[in-house]
Each structure stands twice: as C-alpha cells, then as structure tokens.
Design brief:
The chain is an alpha/beta fold. 18% of the residues lie in helices and 31% in strands. The longest helix has 10 residues, at 93-102.
Amino acid sequence: MRKLTVFIACSIDGFIADENESLDFLNPMHDEEEDYGYGDFYETIDTVIIGRKTYDKVMGFGEPFPHADKTCYVFSRKAHESTPWAIFVQQDPLGFVQKLKAEKGKGIYCDGGGTLVTQLMAAGLVDELILSVVPCVLGRGTRLFQENLGGYKKAMLTSLKSFPSGLAQLRYRFV
C-alpha cells in the first residue's frame, strides 16, 4: 500500500492562508539555502493530489507548475480540461485516493488545500503529516483542518526539527 503524506505549512494558530487567501506570511521563511527537507521528501513520491483552489493559487504565481515532473491529480467539483501537467478529477476524492494507494508506485503527496486535507484525514487515509509551523499568528484565514474532521486520530510524533528562521517542523505518523 502506498503512503499518503500531507506536507504543508501553517501559522501557529493553524491557518494555511490569511483572510485574503494570501500566502505572504510564508515569505519570511524563504531561504535559498534551506528547503526544510522538501527536496528529500519530494524524491520519495511520484504522485501529487491537490484541490482546485490550491491549484489555481499555485498557477496564479506566474511560475512553471511545480509538480510537472509527477503525476498530478486536481480535485474539482466542476469539469476542467486536463493540462500536460495536471489531470482534473471530478470523482469523490476518498474513493479515488483509496484506489491510488492500492496501486504500485512511490508515495502520494497531498499539497492542499484545507478541504481536501480534512476529507482525507477524516477518512483515515493520511499516513503521515509533515507540518511546518511558521512563527506567526494570523488570527483569521483558511484553516488547515476544517470542521467535521471526524473522531479522534491517534498520531505518533516521529521527528521534530527547529530551524534558524523560527520555523518548527513536526512529522507525525498516524496509527
């Protein structure tokens, strides 16, 4: 069974975007010399899943799509034409991800957003959470975990690392 990992950053108070859906709070963490373990992690996966709003946000940066070298599925409620780098999926994310996990291959990376992460967590499909906590408090915005997360999820902390930028990275395995 393939492993599904959520690798994501949030504020101390659990927001992945501010009230204007901006990710500017992440800018102070940018350091050309530090990727916070992302490069090593990225080598362990061959599939990326992402929500449509997050996909639109990424495409709005005006940069080349960062996951063009992986198989990328974008979940959307509305039909969209697939691109050379992304396959749009209108199916139920839970059933689709269960099938992906059963296929042969490397790991699966969920790159957001909060709604998709919450659905996957509530269904018990997330095997690992790599949470980079940015040293700021936003107060409002898009929560990492939406309401209705489901029941108690037992997690084991497998590593904790702090960085000179003030970012703390926690790695959890769900049991």
